[in-house]
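Moderator note: this is an archived Q&A kept for reference. The question asked for a predicted structure of one protein chain; the sequence and the answer are reproduced below.
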Amino acid sequence: MKSLLADKKILFGISGSIAVYKAAEWVRELAKTGADVTVVMTDAATRFVSSLTFATLSGNRVYTGMFESDAGENVTHINLARECDLFIIAPATAQTIAKLANGFADNLLSSLALASRAKMLVFPAMNSNMYSHAATQANLARLKEYEYSIIEPDEGMLACGDEGVGRLVEWGVAREAILSSFTPQDLEEQTVIITAGPTCEPFDPARHMSNRSSGKMGFALARSAKRRGAKVILISGPTSLGAPSGVEMINVTSALQMHEVVMENYNNADIVVMSAAVSDYRPEKIAEQKIKKGSDSIDLEIVPNPDILKELGKRKDKTKRPLLVGFAAESSDHLEEGKRKLKEKNLDLIVINDIIGKDTGFGTDTNQVNLIDRDYQLEKLPLLAKEECAYIIWDKIVKLLQ
């Protein structure tokens, strides 16, 4: 799948803050996606990092003044504003925010903001006292009224030595905001529960039964649902993955814990996607002390865990909500097993994948799945990156919602 940002014209405004060094990394990352990035810097911004740096990273000319010497008959602030698909301002200082809020047009950046009709993403960065000041907060509130999207800054140690709110967000947060701006908001007002990762079933204080699920597919589903406007609750077993930006994440360990958390939240859900590899069984008893090596074998009584998805299928109300999506990780008879589970668990959609495939098993960055919907319509997908796969799964879910 082609990058969502490929060939997009992004106008990147930079104002004078020590956080300009972060903006350099953002421009580099955007250029790597194939986006066409044009940087506009205030005079103060050039005191922190030179325009040459941004020209090198973006591959394009950098604009710094209202009246460029070689502009000819072109009106720079009109042409740049007219041609962009997205306007980013990062870092946005208190001074620049005040200018935007009050309609000033005394430099190229503020003039472009007035002239542009593209979606605006504003990333504030400043001292925490400046950020919390009533004037700054009033200016930010006004920008929201103007339909600017404000990405709130992080909290932590600031360059001035103070600690508080005001740090420019990290690239991962910015990336999600940028991708969301180019993504249809067709899951807006939908509350989505997604389960991900393995569960671990202990049988003594040192050991447990589990599986090799990495959680990558579930996390990709969570990120892409958030981009499409959903409120996402991600319930994850133990993984090494960081929480996706803007997603409510609840960590669990065992299948019983996952069952409890899903049941606590499902009444508020419009969609439930059970992509976790939930252990089918657990030890009946957990030894209080570590089981010592001694005999050639040990007796381990195991009992079934609750089938969370099947229970949700039985609880579906007359409106057929929530919409239920299951995953079938199979090693043989894939389609037959998928159809059986679709019917048995009263699902709207099942996603079937081969867990012993070289590029489709646990821990891989790619997946090749088959989708079967409630009308038993089969859709076979090619081998894709898990994020690409997630987008197609949500496309299918959106159709089912309609």
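Archived answer notes: The domain at 9-181 is CATH 3.40.50.1950 (Rossmann fold).
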